[in-house]
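Support reply, case 0932

Customer input (verbatim):
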Amino acid sequence: MQPPAGSQVSRVPAQRTPSEQLPPAPVAPAPQPPRSRLRTVLTVVGGVLALLCLGGAITGYILYDRATTPDRSAPDVVVANYIQAFFVDRNDVRADQFTCEGGGELDALRALRDDLLAREERFGVSISVGWGPLAVQRQGDAASVQVELIISAMVDGITQSDRQPWRFSTQLGEDWRVCEGARLSS
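Our regenerated output:
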């Protein structure tokens, strides 16, 4: 409806807000640029490299664990490893990995090694210990292993050796362990 003629309203032009005072028109979000193929390729390559590194770390751990775990799979194996660690390497910590809990009855072997060390010092020679074939007699979770220890030294350019028969008693728990060592009479 129109205002009556002569009214003030009809004579006043419609007022508009100046355009600089208007709120800005809502802006639509900018369209997403298409994903770059390079970015996709780099993401895939990064994921594959991460999986390869993780797989390599796991493989390395497993191989390290297998390489450092002492082999106690059979009575003769544990006796050979014990002799190697105790007499050849002279490493008591490593040798203890092959013995029964509490060390077992291995005093005769300790006495033999102490005697050999004293002779080395007294005569200024190097004495080595080797061993021959290992004969196993197994009875359930226990086994007796007979072996000949070969004790050798070089004295005045001449190799001298002594052969001593020994019997080792082993016991199977989670794995085989050396529990006793005794020299047999020749």
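We compared this against your earlier run and they match. Two observations from our side: Helices lie at 8-11, 37-68, 75-88, 92-96, 107-123. The longest strand covers residues 158-172. Please reopen the case if you see a mismatch on your end.
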